[in-house]
Amino acid sequence: MNDIKIGNFTIGNGHKPFIIAEMSGNHNQSLDRALELVDAAAEAGAHALKLQTYTADTITMKGAMTIDDKNSLWNGKELHDLYKMAYTPWEWHKAIFDRAKEKGMIAFSSPFDETAVDFLESLNVPLYKIASFENTHHPLLKKVAATGKPVIISSGVTTREDITESIEVLRKAGCKNIILLKCTSTYPATPENTNLRTIPDFINSFDCIVGLSDHTMGVGASVAAVALGARVIEKHFTLRRADGGVDSAFSLEPEELKSLVVETERAFLSLGQIQKGILPAEEKSVQFKRSIFVSKDVKKGEVLSADNLKVIRPAKGLAPKHWDEVVGKTFKTDIKAGTPLSLEHF
Questions:
Q1: What is the dihedral of CA 33, 37, 38, 39, to 10 degrees?
Q2: Class of the CATH-defined domain 11-271
Q3: DSSP H/E element including 209
Q4: CATH class of 280-345
Q5: DSSP reduced 3-state for 272
Q6: pTM here?
Q7: Residues 313-324 pLDDT 10s
Q8: Per-domain residue ranges for the chain?
Q9: Considering only CA atoms, which of 240, 239, 177 is closest in space to residue 208?
Q10: Helix, strand, coil proportions of the chain in percent (round to 5)?
Q11: In 3D, which of 269, 343, 271, 338 has the Cα closest to residue 308?
């Protein structure tokens, strides 16, 4: 799979994880708060800021559904009302994107219908994200792929066959750069239903860069995902969960987002390569290993034994692995206690 270059960032297996801060509806219908979120994401070190581009009427219709799930954050809300509360006004997009660019971040969005793609094209976004609930919306996939820009697609609520088919649709429609995110579409997701072992399987199966759209609490799942090969991490974030908002309950606060950036980078750097010897950085520490020392004054002709030898630090004498070979031999000369044992001594 090839690296993907977006602005000043390169996404690929040999590069540090690309961290996407998902604003979603956590602006709570305030543009000032939205711009604060941009600033906070940049300060935390996120590489990209993502919006969602829809209106209540482009995603559903009044009276279509009321959520009836006691475990849902949105239980009892009508779908149309929820999206009306959560959507990001389209007239805000340019101001938010401009602020993100000023702060050195990539700014892009998830379109939820074809009109949103046309709108985002007018803002010249550098890539697109397909949300899990749209990942089998083939007309939308074709519309996005036709732009020729990289596409990130989440895998939530899909079968393996769905994913295979959707990736094929994107490629046939002209998309050459695809990033597939493992995603569990529950809000929040639990560690137990995150199934990160899917990540290496995705890498082997789909020949594309793989990442994680992480709806769990905290940063542990994302760090583990990087160790398993994820190179893109997407997380919802907010200023303070206590402020409320449609996604606030499972969103990171700025300090946590900074931790995500730092810890996923550490996870990536720690992967390194297969180590088969002593590292150059370890060479000074070799002296602190053990070796065989003469532990009391001995005379020529005395037998080497546990009574006059000891395995201690530092590693100035024969290695401990030679213990059985030297015990029972005789000293060639008088030796003082505290002398590292060498071949010349017996």
A1: 100
A2: alpha beta
A3: strand 209-214
A4: alpha beta
A5: coil
A6: 0.90
A7: 999 999 999 999
A8: 11-271, 280-345
A9: 177
A10: 40, 20, 40
A11: 338
